[in-house]
Amino acid sequence: MKLATHVAPRITDQDRFVLRKLAREVARPGMRIAEVGSFLGNGSTLALLEVAAEFGGEVVCIDTWRGSTNVQWHLDLARDHDLFATFRHHVGEAGFSSQCKPMVMESLVAAQFVADGAFDLVFIDGDHSYEAVKADVAAWTPKLRDGGILCGHDCEGEVGEFGRETLRANVDQDFVQIEGFRFAGYHPGCILAVDETVGEAARLWSLTDLAELGFTGRSTIWSTTPHTAEQAARVA
Ligand SMILES: C[S@@+](CC[C@H](N)C(=O)[O-])C[C@H]1O[C@@H](n2cnc3c(N)ncnc32)[C@H](O)[C@@H]1O
Questions:
Q1: What are 84-93's pLDDT values in tens digits?
Q2: Does a structural domain hold residue 8?
Q3: Domain tally for the chain?
Q4: What's the CATH code of the domain at 153?
Q5: What is the pLDDT of residues 54-111, one digit of tens each?
Q6: What's the pTM value of the predicted model, to 2 decimals?
Q7: CB 217 within 8 A of CB 12
Q8: 37 alpha carbon – ligand 1 mean position (Å)
């Protein structure tokens, strides 16, 4: 089957900037990162591998490589292209094959094979529906070491900016387009699930003008360091 090398990365330069920054905050020799949702390997995967490689570490990439079931263009792409071969192509081309450890399976199944406390950073970017993001946060939070960072993609703002009822009415949609907002639209499932699991402990990078950090624009990454007793209890 064909490679899907024509598809542009699904994350922005701003997201890459924040991901590299977060990974560097928890970096140590032999560091370990888990990425839930790697897709074609030309987006977040490369940003995370860059930092892991710098510190002699590894990125465990978890994906079905069949696309998200609520994203029609993923399913269309997966029907005609080999997504896993495309992923390996991009990672290999960037020179990171030996630092990349794929797990070809559902996120919640992979979590059962992984020891608690195994990772310095976990990045969640798999199925964006409300139930799936909540389940991923619950399953992967225990996989972090003390002081590790849990983060994810596609949280465009606070619940109050959209309205809880509006978000609830759209939770099964991957993405809702809107005009006149700081992004082209929003991911209702991610926004609600992050609010309900991580709550105020979540840093929403969409609210930070990256000019403060010497970059430009805004990112839809969210992040937290969940190992306070209160927060661990909340996501369990
Ligand atoms: C938004 S894409 C990830 C984008 C990627 N992080 C990037 O920067 O290009 C979501 C990915 O999650 C995967 N996925 C969806 N549901 C999943 C599940 N239950 N378990 C594992 N992977 C899943 C899809 O196959 C898809 O590749």
A1: 999 999 999 9
A2: no
A3: 1
A4: 3.40.50.150
A5: 999 999 999 999 999 989 999 999 999 999 999 999 999 999 999 999 999 999 999 9
A6: 0.95
A7: yes
A8: 3
From the CA of 205, how far away is ligand 1's center (Å)?
21
Nearest to 220 by CA among 177, 192, 197, 191: 191
Number of other CB atoms surrounding residue 6 within 10 Å: 10
Q: Does 134 fall in a domain?
A: yes
Ligand 1, atom nearest to 106 Cα: 20
Q: Provide, for the chain, the percentages of residues in helix, strand and coil under a 3-state DSSP scheme, each rounded to the nearest 5.
A: 45, 20, 40
Q: Quote the ligand 1 centre to 107 CA distance (angstroms).
A: 9
Q: Report the residue among 79, 127, 137 best suited for mutation to probe ligand 1: largest number of ligand atoms under 8 A from its CB.
A: 127
> Which residue puts its alpha carbon closest to atom 20 of ligand 1?
106
Site residues for ligand 1, CB cut-off 6 Å? 9-11, 37-40, 43-44, 62-68, 106-107, 125-127
Distance (Å, whole) CA 154 – CA 167: 14
Which structural domain, as residue segments, surrounds residue 66?
A: 13-235
In a domain, 7, yes or no: no
**pLDDT over 90 percentage in the chain:** 92
The verdict on residue 176 lying in a domain is yes
